[in-house]
Amino acid sequence: EQVYANSLHPDINMSRRNDCSVPETFMSSLISPEDGAITTLYCATSPEIEEKNYHGKYFDPYGIEGEKSSYTENEDLAKRLWEFTENLINEKLSQN
């Protein structure tokens, strides 16, 4: 079976962990935790991801396809991130 790897922005929601760190004037623009989950659920469960063969896409809140950063096309940065991730995983696995 195929793996579909995409990234997303879940938006800022009104979860308990945000209650103290967000100014009162900003609270009205926050979305509910349920709405905040929509993009994640869309990317994980929507048949459209497979039907439209979405690979390497970026999704904004509410499952809307967004613009990718120019960093996503930087092969040197991708290689460095891959190596960093491998090293971090190997370090953590060797601690167990």
UniProtKB/TrEMBL annotation:
Protein name: 14811_t:CDS:1
Source species: Dentiscutata erythropus
